Amino acid sequence: MKLTDLFNDGKFVITSEAGPPKGVDTTKMFEEVDLLLDKVHAFNVTDQQSSVMRLGSLAVSHLLKQRGAEPIFQLTCRDRNRLALQSDLLSAYTLGIENVLCLTGDYVSLGDHPDAKPVFDLDSVSLIHTVKTLCAGHDLAGKELLGAPDFCIGAVVSPGADPLEPQIIKMENKIAAGAKFFQTQAVYDLDQFEQFMGQVDHLDVPVLGGIILLKSAGMARFMNRNVAGVHVPESLVNRMEDTEDKVATSIEIAAELVKGMKDLCQGVHIMALGWEKWVPDVLQEAGL
Amino acid sequence: MLVSEQKPLEEILHSLEGESTVFLLGCRGCAEASHTGGEDEVLAMKDSLEAAGKTISGWTALDFLCQKALIKTGLQPFRDRIMASDSILVMCCGVGVQATAAAVDKTIHPGCNTLSMGGSQGEWRGSERCAECGDCLLDYTGGICPITACTKSLVNGPCGGARDGRCEHQPEVRPCGWQLIYERLEKLGRLDKLREIHLPRDHARAEPPKSLRSTTFWALEQAEEQKGTEA
User: Fold this and answer.
1) Which of A129, A140, A170 lies nearest to residue B158, judging by beta carbons?
2) S-S: A114 plus which of A106, A109, B19, B67, CB 3.0-4.6 Å?
3) CATH label of the domain that carries residue B47
4) pLDDT, tens digit (0-9, with 9 covering 90-100), for B139-157
5) Which CATH fold would you assign to the domain A3-285?
């Protein structure tokens, strides 16, 4: 199932995330996935997130598909050149994967193998172009494919970036290259998000607002210091600081954000980071 | 020596779209020796651009455009003509193009691709500015090279990793190259340049023929020695 089909049906699309483990024991990851199997439409499968070496997104996307979950295969330009990217895309399609999210990828120095050689042969825009080219029946060298894939292509945008203008221009370029939907970096400030959505109003492409469940005030402060494009307002940090029940307050905040987004964009992308069991409560409180 | 080749005229004309008046700037250093940006080539370019309907407001060729400190002095006599132009077409290696962009607040177009630098950054040695990629993009980026200024060498705009204008990699010493490019293009009123999508690059161009790498410096040294004998 392609995400675009859901948008075309007028659905408010809910996606979440499956984080492959470092190792081959997938038990915990699938326990988390199973909690949300009938609550969300699809799962992003991260591609060695934060440049930390893990089980691959292609294999896990395939396993999710077998389990009856719809995967969104994340693909970054950090670790593969254009031969490997194209080949993995063909492999993915033969394994039944229909949604792909194209990303630049973090720099290698952010992860646990900082001594690795970074690739970046392509970037997010030229990777989107590459997927579209494959779907049109050719590879990047112009050679005809024996059977073409048919992917729904996704991309990301960071509404909290400063300056925002180059992000929006890049978003437009991604659409021109073939992107059909966007997921955003985590949003905590609905006013700012509303402004962003106003600025991209002319772009006829669905946007899923990003939500990361806050686990503590410390986590919020950490993200404010270290995660690009994420800003948790002081009022939310204080609510997490003052609460007796961190889980309840976290659910409350996330539900408020989801509720607010229902009027602003076409879906939400919820990153639970281990708190998957609370996501159904978030969705229920948000009226979904 | 820095070896360059002229960009195809078609690509140069594409970069000049929407502009009518251009100042031509050549280099009497390596570009003259490469036959890509000396007086002869500048004058030939003048003819080609005029034939394509462009007005050439003036031209000059300076000694070693990579000598950033000397560019302003060298261009002083042409100041009014340059300021009245839409842009400057700079016919030399990537270091000279970037040095010119850093010296003059004008839209800069590179006229050449840099093929080989022989391990040198010209006379502007403070940083590694040209990666001799053989497919110069300085036209699109306000004269700041995305290959060397961006840690990931991205050519289609910034990633989402910069914070407060600093790169996610070594933020204490690395500004976000794309933020610098954005600010520069905004200052020049040329943000339209960010709207051109760059398809996967031809990385084979970064690897010039072995013969070119190993013989040009030798050839120049031979010529110099020859000159010395004649004098």
Assistant:
1) A170
2) A109
3) 3.40.50.11860
4) 999 999 999 999 999 999 9
5) TIM Barrel (3.20.20)
Q: Which residues contact B196 (CB under 8 A, 6 or more apart)?
A: B140
What is the rounded distance in angstroms from the CA atom of residue A255 to the CA atom of residue A261?
10
- Is residue B67 included in any domain, yes or no? yes
Tens of pLDDT along A116-142? 999 999 999 999 999 999 999 999 999
> Does a structural domain hold residue B115?
yes
Q: What share of chain B is helix, strand, coil (3-state, %, to 5)?
A: 40, 15, 40
Count: domains in chain B: 1
Residue B29, token pair as written in the block: 């250093």
**Nearest-angstrom CA–CA distance, A135 and A151:** 7
What global pTM score does this model have?
0.88
DSSP alpha helix (H) spans, chain B: 9-15, 30-33, 39-51, 68-75, 79-83, 94-103, 146-149, 177-188, 210-230
The torsion angle over the Cα atoms of residues B162, B164, B169 and B171, rounded to 10 degrees, is 170
Q: Does residue B222 fall inside a structural domain?
A: no
Which residue range is the domain that position B134 belongs to? 3-209
Q: Pick A169's closest partner by Cβ from B155, B169, B195.
A: B195
Q: Is the ipTM of this complex over 0.90?
A: yes
Q: Do A169 and B194 touch (CB under 8 A)?
A: yes
Assign B21 to helix, strand or coil: strand
Look at B158 and A169 and tell me if their CB atoms are within 8 Å: no
Domain extents in chain A: 3-285
